[in-house]
Design goal:
With 218 residues, the chain is an all-alpha fold. It contains 7 helices and no strands. It has helices spanning 42-51, 57-78, 86-106, 115-138, 168-179, 184-191, 195-216. Helix 1 packs across helix 3 (86-106). The radius of gyration is 20 Å and the shape is globular. The two termini are 18 Å apart.
Length: 218
């Protein structure tokens, strides 16, 4: 079966604004007047203060969203019997967020997702990665499949996907389905959408991928 290429969740392309037409292009139809931008909520304002280097903004941000992150981590770890590791993983989430001078926060796009949804996705994927590492570290050697112990080098097949090929939601759902191995119901609950929306978004993304790679490899 042909492997499906996935995008890195932390790639800024997942949250990038749609590309605007070039300055020389003339729109086919008259553009409607844009609605006034909504004011920043407290969390979004905190992001701006963090990016500007304001002291004290980080403590307020953690206090405001600790419950959101903790709940997402708890939901994933408690089913795996790792309740005692919830606090450590929640700390890892916040460390990831503030890493490289708040790189993730700088790439957050409020037009793509609510901040609470965005944080929940990061907390969930961090929890999944943690469980995978723990599973590999605690699996007895005699339980590991022989194929996994093979010394034959494996070459991972990587496929470059143009950043503007998939929409932000399509790229995120592909990421969660294939790289994070989440179920459709889990993704729907995580993103606050219907399971059928997840399926239809996945279908449209796959159509785009097939068409793109068919053109590249006729």
């Amino acid at each position: 079966m042909q492997q499906v290429a996935v995008l890195d969740f932390e790639d800024p392309a997942l949250w990038r604004d749609e590309r605007l037409p070039s300055s020389g292009a003339r729109p086919a139809t008259r553009r409607k007047a844009e609605a006034p931008a909504r004011p920043l909520d407290e969390g979004e304002a905190l992001i701006q203060r963090l990016v500007d280097g304001e002291r004290g903004a980080w403590n307020r941000f953690v206090a405001l969203y600790a419950r959101v992150v903790y709940a997402a981590v708890h939901r994933r770890l408690v089913t795996a019997g790792r309740l005692d590791e919830v606090e450590d993983v929640a700390q890892d989430v916040f460390l990831k967020i503030c890493r490289e001078d708040f790189k993730l926060l700088r790439n957050y796009d409020r037009n793509r997702a609510k901040l609470t949804t965005w944080l929940t996705v990061i907390a969930t994927t961090t929890s999944i990665d943690h469980l995978r590492r723990r599973s590999l570290a605690t699996t007895p050697i005699d339980k590991v499949p022989e194929a996994a112990l093979s010394v034959e080098p494996r070459i991972a097949e990587t496929v470059e996907i143009p950043a503007d090929l998939l929409s932000a939601r399509q790229a995120l759902i592909i990421e969660l389905l294939y790289r994070r191995e989440m179920e459709v119901i889990e993704i729907a609950r995580l993103l606050g959408i219907e399971p059928q929306t997840v399926r239809s978004t996945h279908h449209k993304a796959m159509e785009k991928l097939r068409a793109h790679f068919k053109e590249e490899c006729p």
